[in-house]
Amino acid sequence: MMPAALPQHVLVKLLALEEAVAALKAGADAVERGIEDRRARLYGNVRRADDNPRLLEAELEKFMADQKVVQQRLQAEQSIISACKGWLDRLPPGTKLEQIVPDVEDGLALGDVRTRVKKLKDQVEALKRVPVLGPDIKQKVQAYVERLPIPSIGGIGAGEALTVQWPTGLPALMAFLQPDVLADRLMLAINQIANTPCPLAERERRIAKFEEEIDRLRRTEEAIIVATGSPREWGCLPWVVLGVKAIEAPGVRAA
Questions:
Q1: Which of 29, 61, 170, 238 is the most exposed place for a label (fewest CB within 10 A)?
Q2: Per-residue pLDDT tens digits for 52-62
Q3: Contact 137, 189 (CB under 8 A)
Q4: CB of 41 within 8 A of CB of 108?
Q5: Taking the alpha carbons of 38, 43, 44, 49 in that order, is the dihedral positive or negative?
Q6: What is d(CA 129, CA 116) in angstroms, rounded to the nearest whole number?
Q7: Residue 40's CB: how many other CB atoms inside 10 A?
Q8: Which of 252, 241, 222, 245 is CA-nearest to residue 17?
């Protein structure tokens, strides 16, 4: 999607992201200069008459700790703005970007929002892990039962002593005596697995509902971040950060 086609609110958001990255770079540079200064005054030839080695060591230690925090945040923000621009570039021509203004509950903390999102994501992942039965599941079960070993019988010729060697394991014996019953019981167990905690249609409805709530909470999270200046986490979704929803143009599928 060409920059000229971007709505004003998206351009403003991109500018704000770039300004935030520039500010973080300036902060990282300032921390680096502080580290170099303290090291030079501790171990080099630029000591001042009033320098206190213990104080300098404490300041150096703090600068080193700050450097890790600033670098991590800078890398995260650079990754986010890159992801936003990449997502916009991949949008098909004619895609409309609808602005989404999130609702933020009074007193809602950022940590609470992230906890809710994690809980919902865990629920979605659990529902998606439930297997969806293939149309050939009955054939698979029947083939499994038919492949189970049968007794090895010998000595059936005239004058020979009959010998029967039974395969080990209850399934093989069950398949020999009552194969249809075994197949039915396996199908019963399989259907129970595939419908726990609920049937497929209900799982799909729950997943859609949870994912809708996750999207709402993520937009709330972004609003709190903007309002408080809190750091973003890695992996923020571009359309959430930009505060938009991609609307497909007629005959065109949005990214």
A1: 170
A2: 999 999 999 99
A3: no
A4: no
A5: positive
A6: 20
A7: 13
A8: 241
